[in-house]
Design goal:
Shape: globular
Strand content: 15-25%
Oligomer: single chain
CATH superfamily of the largest domain: Response regulator
Mean pLDDT: 85
CATH topology of the largest domain: Rossmann fold
Strand order of the largest sheet: 2-1-3-4-5
Structural class: alpha/beta
Low-confidence stretches: none
Radius of gyration: 18 Å
CATH architecture of the largest domain: 3-Layer(aba) Sandwich
Distance between the termini: 47 Å
Number of strands: 11
Length: 227
């Protein structure tokens, strides 16, 4: 479902998605989109932030309460980091700032759908991963910290799973974009940074002095390994 109040842009996006065999339902206002999201089944949501009646952030937040798995891509005309982080905090998997390349949009859509299909269909290599106070239930995609469940967005879970599955290995931002998001585009390192910051705020006792997700300055990030 594409939720966008600009009919010209919506038509262009729908045509591009059709070229990659994606059937697109266009909804021009937020209230109708929220109703459809709660009563109909979609493989993915593409949400503009600025919408009539109900904005994209509210749609994203509401959908995430009942559906943690559906991929959500946010579109925004705003370029500030705050707007991007708000979208990710509400549960979006990715975002794009207008104006954007329609070819890049389709690449992002295919990557998100591919990751969602892999999560649903692949047999997990391990049913659980544990390190100190952290434990993830791989099959059911749940995280526990000291026995208490912590809510993660699908992309946050994918990122943490990737880290915990490769302790002690350093990954650059480009490598994380490629392996977790499924694409590698220069200039989108902030996508990785935002997700890591959000993850740290949820799992680290002191996010500015992390014990799980470590920064290797000038190289990238790694998950701590057992001593």
């Amino acid at each position: 479902m594409l939720v966008e109040d600009d009919p010209d842009l919506a038509e262009l996006v729908a045509l591009q998605l059709k070229d990659v065999q994606c059937e697109c339902t266009w909804v021009p206002n937020g209230r109708d989109a929220l109703e459809k999201a709660q009563t109909e089944s979609f493989d993915m949501l593409i949400l503009d932030i600025m919408l009539p009646e109900v904005d994209g952030l509210e749609i994203c937040r509401t959908v995430r309460v009942s559906n943690r798995q559906i991929p959500i891509l946010m579109l925004t005309a705003k370029s500030s980091e705050l707007d991007r982080v708000l979208g990710l905090e509400m549960g979006a998997d990715d975002y794009m700032t207008k104006p954007f390349s329609t070819l890049e949009l389709t690449a992002r859509v295919k990557a998100l759908l591919r990751r969602a299909n892999i999560s649903e269909s692949d047999e997990p290599r391990q049913t659980a991963l544990r390190f100190k106070a952290l434990e993830i239930d791989v099959e059911n995609r749940r995280l526990f910290l000291d026995g208490t469940e912590i809510e993660l967005t699908p992309k946050e879970f994918d990122l943490l799973h990737h880290f915990m599955d490769n302790p002690g290995r350093v990954f650059s931002r480009m490598q994380l974009l490629d392996r977790v998001w499924g694409y590698s585009y220069e200039g989108y390192h902030h996508t990785v940074n935002s997700h890591i910051n959000r993850l740290r705020s949820k799992i680290e006792n002191k996010p500015h002095e992390p014990e799980y997700i470590l920064t290797r300055w000038g190289v990238g990030y790694e998950f701590a390994k057992a001593e």
